Amino acid sequence: MARVERAWVASLTVHRVVRRRLLLASASPARRQLLAWAGFEVDVEVSGASEEGSGSLVAAEIAERLAVRKAEAVAARHPAAGDAPLVLGCDSLLALDGSVLGKPADAATARKWWRSRRGRSGHLWSGLCLIDGASRGSASGAERAVVRFGHPSDDEIDAYVASGEPLEVAGGFTMEGRGAPFLEGIDGHPSTVMGLSLPLLRRLVLEVTGRPITDLWTP
Predict the structure, then answer these.
(1) What is the pTM of this model?
(2) CA-based nearest residue to 169, from 97, 69, 102, 89
(3) Cα separation, 80 vs 133, whole angstroms
(4) In a domain, 4, yes or no
(5) Given this model, what pLDDT does residue 142 score?
(6) Please, what are the averages of pLDDT over each run of 10 residues along the chain (219 residues)?
(7) Is residue 2 in a domain?
(8) What is the tally of structural domains in the chain?
(9) Which of 61, 129, 149, 217 has the fewest CB atoms within 10 Å, i.e. the most exposed one?
(10) Residue 7 lies in a domain
(11) Do residues 93 and 62 lie in contact, with contact meaning Cβ atoms separated by under 8 Å?
(12) Which residue in 73, 192, 182, 214 sits closest to 126, CA to CA?
């Protein structure tokens, strides 16, 4: 075999070794779709971890702590073998006027939130934790985006809440769904508002694996 051909075969072998499986510890369709758009093939395993016990922490700390809890719950189910996945835990929270908002408890709460935030801005925090299932190395963090809300009418808010979408997402709104027309703009990365900050993920992958995020792209 020619030297160039041997080198080419060797490079393919190395690529197979370094490519890792990404396991998303979240049932969020938006997060899974976001990763797919960004070039990743992911499996999903819902953590089932509790979101209680945040105490008096600020939004950034709560989002990061819950992401860690979810990632650890899923990683614990997989032996620390060489083919163990990279486990990604996520959490999102909206901070507005000192209040930390997760998913609204019911339609009345979602309606109240929307009527009180018209024309105002809030901070959407995306907390992430990445655990290497093989080495058990981990890293976590939280990224922020500022969301500027529009002025939807009472009828528009009622229709939006009736769609059911606000009840399924942090802060009671989405940027990629039916809530998009009611946002005036954002300051920050769009993926952060969608629940999974891709710039933060890039930094965590490098910190945990020592490899660039491009190694996780689907060939």
Answers:
(1) 0.86
(2) 102
(3) 5
(4) no
(5) 97
(6) 47 51 93 95 90 74 96 92 90 91 94 96 97 95 97 98 94 93 96 96 97 92
(7) no
(8) 1
(9) 217
(10) no
(11) yes
(12) 192
Pairing, β 99-101 against β 121-132: unpaired
HEC readout, 124-172: EEEEEEEEECCCCCEEEEEEEEEEEECCCCHHHHHHHHHCCHHHHCHHH
Q: Is residue 169 part of a domain?
A: yes
Asked if 127 contacts 91 with a C-beta cutoff of 8 angstroms, the reply is yes
For residues 114 and 143, what is the distance between their CA atoms, to the nearest angstrom? 23
Task: Just list the catalytic residues.
Answer: 91
Domain that holds residue 101: 20-216
Which CATH number belongs to the domain containing residue 113 in this structure?
Answer: 3.90.950.10
Structure-token match 């995020």, residue found: 213
What does each C-alpha distance from 29 to 34, 129, 160, 212 come to in angstroms?
A: 8, 18, 19, 25
Query: DSSP string covering the chain, please?
Result: --HHHHHHHHHHHHHHHH---EEE----HHHHHHHHHTTB-EEE----------TT--HHHHHHHHHHHHHHHHHTTS---TTPPEEEEEEEEEEETTEEE-S-SSHHHHHHHHHHHTT-EEEEEEEEEEEETTT--EEEEEEEEEEEE----HHHHHHHHHTSGGGGSGGG--SSSTTGGGEEEEES-HHHHTT--HHHHHHHHHHHHSS-GGGGB--
